[in-house]
Design a protein that fits this description.
Keywords: DNA-binding, Transcription, Transcription regulation
Structural class: alpha+beta
CATH architecture: Orthogonal Bundle
Helix content: 55-70%
Domain HTH hxlR-type: 11-109
Organism: Sporofaciens musculi
Number of helices: 6
InterPro entries: ArsR-like_HTH, HTH_HxlR, WH-like_DNA-bd_sf, WH_DNA-bd_sf
CATH class: Mainly Alpha
Oligomer: single chain
Number of strands: 3
Strand content: 5-15%
Pfam family, one: HxlR
Length: 113
């Protein structure tokens, strides 16, 4: 686990936030919720993320059982990422968060004009 506190000592909301926290993880999970993605494609989709940061975020998500990494034995190496069965359970949450974000934008447009 990337976090030092044991899972059994965390409150449930804290456990969820530890997995989803960070600038990139929600975006990574959003793209992976659409299907399997290769590393370079994911990096392009995310835009301004370094290779090192993306690799570290994916490694954490893999260690947490949220993401599956599949390496194909070819040259050059081909690596694909997808959500695990546990990771797929986040899809409705991500969709709800996206819907909320759309409502928030609409709300702010009304009150900022």
């Amino acid at each position: 686990m990337a976090k030092t506190q044991g899972i059994d000592k965390q409150c449930p909301i804290e456990a969820g936030l530890n997995i989803l926290s960070g600038k990139w993880k929600l975006k990574i999970l959003w793209y992976l919720s659409k299907g399997t993605v290769r590393f370079n494609e994911l990096q392009r989709l995310l835009g301004n993320i370094t290779t090192k940061t993306l690799a570290a975020q994916l490694r954490e998500l893999e260690e947490q059982g949220i993401v599956i990494r599949k390496v194909f034995p070819e040259v050059p190496p081909k690596v694909e990422y997808s959500l695990s069965e546990l990771g797929k359970t986040l899809t409705p949450i991500l969709s709800q968060l996206c819907d909320w974000g759309k409502r928030y934008h609409a709300y702010m447009e009304i009150y900022l004009d």
